[in-house]
Amino acid sequence: MKGNDVDFRSFLSLLESEEELVRVKQDVSAEFELAAVTAKLDSKQAVLFEKVRGGKIGVACNVVGTPKKFYLAIAGSRKVGQSDIKKAIHARIAEALSRLAEPAKAHGGAPFEKNSSRNLHDLPIVTHFEKDAGPFVTSSVVFAKDQEKGNQNQSTHRLLRLDDRHMAIRMVEGRHLHKCFTYARDHGEDLKVTIAIGVHPAVSIAAAYQAAYGVDEMLIANSLLDGKLSLTKASYSQLYVPSHAEILLEGRILKDRTQEEWMVEMLRTYDLKRKQPVFELERIWFRDNAIYHDILPGYAEHRLLMGLPIEAKMFDYIKNVVPTTQAVHLTDGGSNWLVAVIQIEKRLEGEPKNALMAAFSAHPSLKMATVVDDDIDPTDPVAVEYAIATRCQADKDFIIMPNAKGSSLDPSSDQVNLLTTKVGIDATASLLKAKERFEIARIPGEEKTKLSDYL
What we know:
Blueprint: H1 8-17, E1 21-24, H2 33-40, E2 46-49, E3 58-61, H3 67-75, H4 85-98, E4 104-106, E5 115-117, E6 136-137, E7 141-145, E8 152-156, E9 159-161, E10 166-169, H5 176-186, E11 191-197, H6 201-208, H7 217-224, E12 230-233, E13 240-242, E14 247-261, E15 274-286, E16 291-294, H8 300-321, E17 325-330, E18 339-344, H9 351-362, E19 368-372, H10 381-391, H11 394-397, E20 398-405, E21 419-426
Parallel strand pairs: 1-2, 3-16, 4-12, 18-19, 19-21
Antiparallel strand pairs: 2-3, 5-15, 6-9, 7-8, 7-11, 9-10, 10-15, 11-14, 12-13, 14-15, 17-18, 20-21
Helix pairs in contact: 3-4, 4-7, 4-8, 6-7, 8-9
């Protein structure tokens, strides 16, 4: 990273200099209209809405909605070819995890301390879809203290605005924040938290990474930012949060109040209606000319923020088992979450099945995985289907795992008990047959031939 600014607005400036961001200057509504414009830009440019009706805070969306923008967030000025971006992302995350370091810490003087409010309606919280329960905060990084271990935890959670001081917060049962909350509740206490909105995307990426229990994700963020992350102690919760956050919400998750909530998830389907704990606001802090970050659920930014860190984790797990692993790709058709393709250089029969077991272990939400040879492009669904059609037999090369723990998002699964049937496919060529039987024919010179020379 260059310079000392590792905040949200400096990253938006970088995107603008790379012609990866557009500005909308006309007045837009936070109810549906803003989401509709963002959807039209999906997988294209980031967008900054300068005027949101009824408020004074602008909204940025689709900030890391492509692998290129994601790479810029964790690698800054490092250059890499378009075809190598996914591998470079995995390598960069692995590098960061190998050299964790504590961020610098300060006590006061952060830019967000300049302004304050006690009303959630002062924020441009967006209503995205027609059947949503209401307006949701979707980019929030929630900071909490683990009372058992004494360390901080950071993770991303959606929050449904209920009134000017309360929001329902979705916590997946068994995950880190839920453990922190249940420990506090079981001891008769509310859980103090600080919620950051508008942080450098590297902070959001670190918070999305499913680190081992007890690992402070801000160490990962600091490494991704080349040691330039600064944290400030929040006045109410006494937790350390990014000094250059655009907006902070301080308050507590109430031990004895719940509210039903539901919204659109990664699969772009409506999640189950659940009673979730309620966050009560103490105070909002925000920078001068603050910029709010909204993530459109189920679209590219949401899926890449969740999926790419998991790809990196899966690649690491699988490569430990099959050292010749070349790539791991969570597919668009699987919403970058449920379906994976693993590319290996096969040396022994049985390696593909080992790779499959490692993949399901690394990512428990994974529902289907296919292993292909190194001559098959894992990002090309036609090539993958070709490998399945010509290199595997269902009775020998399909692994069916019924009643396995799966994703709560999949509407075809047992969403109450989190049970699903998983499928692993070995679509690699058998080593027991001559290699030539599976060779894909090529025409010499075809890749250099230009039709413009002939037509």
